[in-house]
Amino acid sequence: MRKIFYVLAFLLLGTVGELSAQMILFKGSFEDAVKKANEEKKDLFVDFYADWCEPCKMMAAQVFTLPEVGTYFNAHFICVQVDVEAKENGEIAKKYGVNVLPTMVFVNRDGKELRRITGVVSPPAFIREAKIVTGEALSFEQMYEKYKKKKKDVEIMQQLLLEAPGFIMTQQGYDRQKWGTRVESLFPEYLKMKKLEDMINESDFAILTLYHPQTTKQDPIFDFVATNFDKFARVVKQEEVAGYLVAMNNSYIIQLCKKGDLLYKDRLGRVSTDLKEAYSGITFGSLSVQEAITLLADATYSLYRHDENSFFATMDKYFAGKGEQTDLNDYTQPLEDLFIVYQGKLSENAYAKCIPWIAKALEKEMDAELRTRLLVMIGQCFQNTGNNDRAKQSFNQAYLVSAQIENVNAMKQLQQVIQQSLQGL
Predict the structure, then answer these.
(1) For residue range 126-145, what is the model confidence (pLDDT) as tens digits?
(2) What is the pTM of this model?
(3) Which residues are catalytic?
């Protein structure tokens, strides 16, 4: 019997430990929570939510339940949730200017707002906001003031650069523009103060991805990361380093192709030389990485030179080589590029060649809005190749699918386009 008691006690203590590790939400009204805060001499953390708010549920389920969050918030705040849809909470929501959800407000015992968070934030950022309120951490503005007095302090500069994107997102109008300009000028200064050799770490890699997302012909940063790929991969996930280099290289190649600059062929050579390891995790069916990237680049070059036949022939080679690995984006991206380049006015030959691409794309999984758009597109292709029966069938199918689009405005706009298309047959 005693043994059973100990086992039960152990299990119970484990459960209590798990519960106490997460954020403890006060049970009662906002007014009662204020009284509790005064009794315990704590500030309040107020989570304004609604039952229909999915981001609110995400914060409550994935952030509030974390041990590190619970430990800090339970020690420093009385935490309470306020349902903005409840009639009795209307004045409270109005007082604190709750216009979007989620909105989370730190309030002192006198009811004065100390700081607020809007939208979903990561656990570290969430805890940092709380520490700013308690005085254990500096706000972004306070850090910037500190930087102005110590402009050679690379640690402050690093912290500002890492936290700037999240902070700027909370700003509006002139303030957002002002802070954006300040941070933009901070990155070059940081590079002057810190050698690239000293940037092989997780924080500085994050800064490079944030503030150096594009490359050019002469780019010491890109070349340094490429040369030191293995070193970066030891401090950051290898796929993140590879993704950074591949995205920049591919983007630069496509940029050259669109400009009609044949230097893109020289840049393609790096795919199988100094960037070989970065591309090693990518597969293209029976095609080698070099063959696949070359085909995509050649197709883009042909398209922007208005060489329609070469564009379709090259893309068909790509699709044939990639085979079953061909995904939805493989079809939709060239279709989008084609309609942009020709401003929606394709030749009859182009309309005809788009039909099998769109048909293959429609076999893939996708949301209702994209499926509707593709059905409209294939309907237009049939219409412009003289097959009005198939066009009508596609437009009618598009209208049925459009009813499943969650965004009401998008649904109405597409339905209007479909109706106009049907009237034009």
Answers:
(1) 999 999 999 999 999 999 99
(2) 0.78
(3) 53, 56
